[in-house]
Amino acid sequence: MNWLSLILSLLITVPILSGAPASKPDVLVILVDQWSPRYLSWENPQVRTPHLDKIAAEGMVFDRCYTTSPVCMPARVSLLTGLYPHNGGHGIWGNALNYHGSPEEATMFRDIKAAGYTTAQIGKTHWTSGPSVREAFPKIEDYHRALGLDYVCDVSGPVDSVTEKNSYAEYLRNLGLLEKVAEEMHDRYVKWEFQPKPSLVPPEHYHDVFVSREAADFVGKQPAAQPLCIVLSLHSPHPPLDAPGGYATMYDAGKLTLSPSVPETFRREMRTIGHPETREMLANYLGKISLADDCIGRVVEAFQKRGTWGRTLVCFTADHGEMMGAHGMLTKGRMYEESARVPLVVRLPGQVKAGHTKTPVQMFDVYPTVVEAIGGTLSPRRQAVSLLPVATGKTTSVRKLAISEIGTHSPLNMMASDGRWKWWADEKGEFLFDLDADPYEMTNLAADPTHLAKLHELRQDMLTHLRSTQTNLSEGYKSKVQRMREAEGLPIKGKKKAAGKLP
Hints:
- By secondary structure, this protein is α/β, with parallel strands linked by helices.
- It is about 35% helix and about 15% strand.
- The protein has 16 helices and 18 strands.
- It has helices at about 5-15, 15-20, 50-55, 70-80, 110-115, 130-135, 140-145, 165-175, 180-190, 205-220, 275-305, 335-340, 365-375, 390, 450-470, 480-485; strands spanning about 25-35, 60, 65, 100, 120-125, 130, 150-155, 230-235, 265-270, 270-275, 310-320, 345, 355, 360, 400-405, 415, 420-425, 430-435.
- An 8-stranded mixed beta sheet has the order 7-5-8-1-11-12-2-13, sandwiched between helices. It has a 4-stranded antiparallel beta sheet with strand order 15-16-17-18, with helices on one face. A two-stranded parallel ribbon has the order 3-14.
- Helix 10 runs parallel beside helix 11.
- This is Sulfatase.
- Keywords: Signal.
- Belongs to the sulfatase family.
């Protein structure tokens, strides 16, 4: 055989290698705190988020994504577990005083790690509160390892105590800023966290900027051949309204347009708040959103330098939203769109189609979406479902309803949305809205006789959902008789008898 023939024969046999699976995608989950979808640039042109806009333009935007609970801790535990608050392995319906997510049920990072990934969470975790985690795990690093995490940098947000012990507090201490920042932050929380006032910390030392630098540095140190999954968890735009430096003046409050659901005046903590005050709050809130966008851009650049951005799966979402004056309310914890609906963008070049969808989905669906995209195996009994079938165009929906739950005492508050119609019940009564006709939820149709059938339908759908999503540790149980029959190769009761076998 001459050299030409040898080369041709190799070209014929080697395509098996060229057809081998490409390297697994890197994964970047961006989790922000208290970001209302009313303040996404594609819903509100006042918002300036160029880095996020690029991600969204390359991915699928889920315009009807809801949190499993419109408050921090239960939403974050749901993401970690793939379970609803009402499931037995979760059980957190609000921020708890003494709790830690069980590693037995908090399976997200373990499933990702089992697929061959380095796993990290940098920024806010909020999976624990009180002493319970220290009682179960003397070292917090042991808890993180039990969750399947290789690296954690837990920065909950602005420091409000000089006794706080984390890397950001130490960073401020080394700058000589810790005592002053802690005092000022404590004062904000006690007096009025919605007072719009620039942070004492300049932008380069702000907590989310610190977190994004830590994340970018971590990404830069990882070997390119080893697939990486990192959760970048930013505290912004969560109050206090302390956008630093130029971010505090980036938006002209007088030129901002408020949601039509914001009343002329409303009361909050013995204050009367009008449109001018609400615009001032909104301007600072939007400044924090733009800061978070710049932080996202820094981490994206780290993946670009790593050389994997072209095949990086990105999921951008929030734990819950922010009312920002809508219906005379601030903060979260309500079932209105501003609080219960959250942003969700899924981007994976070459697989995920660009566009928007109004199919109902849940924030915790990010977990199985990542696991499917990386070729992993989802732990059993998870209630979250992968969104890849929708994102890749294989189907138009993966669930009938999106559900949200919250409450610290009975009766607990529950919400259901099918993407157009939205129903919920809370301590104030029952609510029904047609989101297509009434996106700002101005007209409650629950008492309207012409919509009684839809009200009953969503009530029934909620009941079916609750019956279908309970944690059932008896699932798959076989009776002793059935097990014995199977061991003997005999037919199971109710099934067709096997040929030649006696009963």
